[in-house]
Design goal:
mainly alpha, 21 helices, disordered C terminus, Transcriptional regulator
Length: 457
């Protein structure tokens, strides 16, 4: 029985939103903490804090912004403001800074430097924002050439990017991010001011590829506001030299980020923008990569028929692709990638049993160097098996990933694992689930769950 409330609820607006979201007080606190963490703000509210908010306490400004964004995501209401939660607008609001404006080279240099030094100007410039998604750049704006960077610089940047990408694949995006930021700020950005007319497109393309990787690593590390800015930087660098494939690549990955954060409408708009950037041109493998994301986004938007038709088109485009996958690292779309995309799409459509088989096929086909991807997709497979009622298959899948989870620094993997463990709480009396839960909790450095089907507050 819950403790007797000694103070009355006075914030009825917040109480109504919590009820509409379907959250307990503990779940509300966890969602607020998670959104704040995306900006580098480490807050640790619990259910008692929510009780204080309901009885009239107004949280500090960063918590207000995080709470508003958490409810926006859960309820699908981008119009929510602090007033809808019964609070005044905080005295200190996040600075208004449009990442689509200003010199793209200067912005990249500042972004890398701030990321490297963990400056709060970039880390607390706001959560992942829907407003930043609406611009998507102003198109191609070529510039006159400047100084003397050469082809050797392009080769070095691309070699470094490939090495960082290998580390990301094996150990997760939270590993070696500082090294990437330092390389961008100290080595790459200065070269962009020195590009000759002949070398300039390749140099900007190489810098855009590195910015794209920095975005993906930041997203995997849970720094979604920072990732969004790196993705926008990628689009703008690609636009500087008319690289439509790189522009489409970044927009496609912004769609992935929006979908993972629950912004289904924005995910669909971004996936469609990526397809429009290519205009039906470009490598078949890259087109398949983007079409597959459009299928997933349509599933999230509830347009089932379009989603299934786009999946069929993705398969046709992939079968037609004649380039080696490794030749297109930003669109490195293989059969196992399509299996993953099918799994994500069917999950959104509610077909968990079929989704589980596709996730499992993708996981099993992954190469040894793709440890983070294999773990993430494997946990998604286990979750789908659990939702389909295949308890032992779910447990066996997770148990086989425990060694990988131990080595990976990835917020996405940890979040997937936490979500899975929360969903198998009702089955904790099962010896199989209890054993697996202890194993993965130890591997991931999490607390083992209680038995008896009760959730921890």
């Amino acid at each position: 029985m819950p403790p007797r409330r000694t103070r009355p609820v006075v914030n009825l607006a917040l109480a109504a939103l919590i009820e509409r979201a379907g959250w307990t007080h503990a779940e509300t606190a966890r969602h607020v903490n998670a959104v704040a963490a995306e900006t580098g703000e480490r807050i640790h509210y619990d259910r008692s804090a929510i009780g204080h908010w309901l009885t009239g306490t107004i949280p500090r400004p960063e918590a207000v912004h995080a709470a508003v964004e958490a409810f926006r995501r859960q309820l699908g209401r981008t119009d929510l403001t602090p007033a809808h939660l019964g609070w005044p607008d905080p005295a200190v609001a996040p600075p208004a800074d449009d990442p689509w404006r200003g010199d793209p080279v200067a912005r990249l240099a500042t972004l890398g430097e701030d990321d490297l030094l963990n400056r709060r100007t970039v880390l607390t410039a706001g959560t992942f924002t829907l407003a930043a998604l609406s611009a998507r750049g102003g198109g191609i704006r070529p510039r006159a050439p400047a100084g003397r960077a050469g082809a050797g610089d392009v080769a070095r940047i691309r070699a470094a990017t490939a090495s960082f990408a290998d580390l990301d694949d094996q150990y997760g995006g939270a590993h070696a991010r500082a090294a990437v930021a330092a390389y961008i700020a100290r080595e790459v950005a200065p070269l962009l001011h020195e590009a000759t007319g002949r070398t300039r497109p390749d140099l900007f393309g190489a810098a855009a590829e590195l910015s794209y990787l920095a975005a993906y690593m930041a997203m995997d590390a849970g720094a979604n506001a920072l990732a969004q800015r790196y993705y926008i930087s990628t689009v703008r660098l690609a636009d500087e030299v008319g690289d439509l494939v790189l522009r489409a690549t970044a927009l496609r990955s912004m769609a992935v980020q929006a979908a993972e954060l629950g912004h289904d409408g924005e995910a669909l708009a971004l996936a469609d923008a990526a397809a429009s950037a290519l205009g039906g041109r470009g490598p078949d493998r890259t087109q398949a990569w983007i079409t597959g994301m459009r299928a997933e986004a349509h599933a999230g938007a509830g347009t089932r028929w379009d989603a299934l038709n786009l999946l069929r088109r993705t398969e046709t485009q992939l079968e037609r692709a004649d380039s080696p996958p490794e030749a297109l690292w930003t669109g490195n779309y293989r059969r196992e990638s399509l299996e993953h995309q099918i799994g994500l799409t069917l999950t959104r459509l509610g077909d968990h049993a079929t989704a589980a088989r596709h996730f499992a096929a993708s996981m099993e086909a992954r190469r040894p160097g793709e440890r983070r991807t294999r773990a993430l997709i494997g946990l998604r497979a286990a979750h789908a098996f659990l939702r389909a009622g295949e308890l032992e298959r779910a447990a066996g899948t997770v148990l086989g990933l425990s060694d990988d989870v131990r080595l990976i620094a990835s917020a996405r993997v940890r979040d997937e694992l936490r979500s899975l463990r929360a969903d198998w709480q009702p089955y904790r009396d099962s010896p199989v689930i209890a054993e697996v839960d202890r194993a993965v909790a130890e591997a991931a450095g999490l607390r083992a769950g209680r038995r008896g089907g009760r959730r921890r507050a």
